[in-house]
Amino acid sequence: MQLFLDTASVAEIRTMWEVGILDGVTTNPSLVAKEGRKFDDVLREVCGLGVPSVSAEVVATDTDGMLTEGRRLREIHRSIYVKVPMTAAGLKATKVLAQEGTRVNMTLVFSANQALLAAKVGAAYVSPFIGRLDDQGQDGMGLIRDIVQIYRNYSYPTKVLVASVRHPIHVLDAAKAGADIATMPFAVMEKLVQHPLTDLGLARFLKDWEKVPKG
Ligand code: E4P
């Protein structure tokens, strides 16, 4: 399963890119607003690191506006995936963009039927928001299992990108469900690396090593 960071912080992206476990980045308007930087500058910097998949969201809500923004965004760098919201206008825009060869990430997906539609119009990624569903008392991971099954039934090439991930168990369950990608905040990715027994074990090895005769 591919691991993406859900952030617009170049510092966070650079850190995980250098560790070597990062496959891509997703951004959204809220994450970009938090950074206080021009969107295009952030995108150019992240793509410049060599990150092969960087999702950039349109903010237009009508099809023509989405097409104009999507075409502009894809010109910024070959690694850009255009993020389009799951609305009727978004489906229409996705179909056109996909036919033009642009890779679209359909976002704000909360049902399996919406995911089916994203696949039908040729989206490269579908982004179901599982944390927000869990927050509503609905089964976010159940939705992932349904989408994975539906896409397998019909051999849709659309990749399932698990979004709105809140903790490492979401990542584990996404992998068990056969999702293609999980995108997560920096703090969650850090937790994938760490385990208290690793730290304890390392400290003990180093302490014991001091007792070994040297020279
Ligand atoms: C996905 O691409 C979204 O940016 C994201 O995962 C939303 O997560 P949130 O529910 O934590 O805002």
Question: What strand order characterises the main sheet?
Answer: 1-2-3-4-5-6-7-8
Q: Please describe the biggest sheet, giving its number of strands, its sense, and whether it closes into a barrel.
A: 8 strands, parallel, barrel
Number of domains: 1
* Outline type: globular
What is this structure, in a nutshell?
With 215 residues, the protein is α/β, with parallel strands linked by helices.
Give structural notes.
This protein has 215 residues and is an alpha/beta fold. It has one domain: Aldolase class I (TIM Barrel). The protein has eleven helices and eight strands. The chain is globular and about 75 Å long. α1 (10-19) packs parallel to α3 (39-49) and α6 (112-120) packs parallel to α8. Bound molecules: erythose-4-phosphate (E4P). Residues 6, 26, 28, 107, 127, 129, 131-132, 163-164, 183 line the site of erythose-4-phosphate (E4P). The site of erythose-4-phosphate has 11 residues, from α7.
Question: What attributes does this structure have?
Answer:
binds erythose-4-phosphate; 215 residues; eight-stranded parallel barrel; TIM Barrel; single chain; alpha/beta; 17% strand
Topology:
Elements: E1 2-6, H1 10-19, E2 24-26, H2 29-35, H3 39-49, E3 54-57, H4 63-76, E4 80-85, H5 88-99, E5 104-109, H6 112-120, E6 125-128, H7 130-135, H8 140-154, E7 159-162, H9 168-177, E8 181-184, H10 186-193, H11 196-209
Parallel strand pairs: 1-2, 1-8, 2-3, 3-4, 4-5, 5-6, 6-7, 7-8
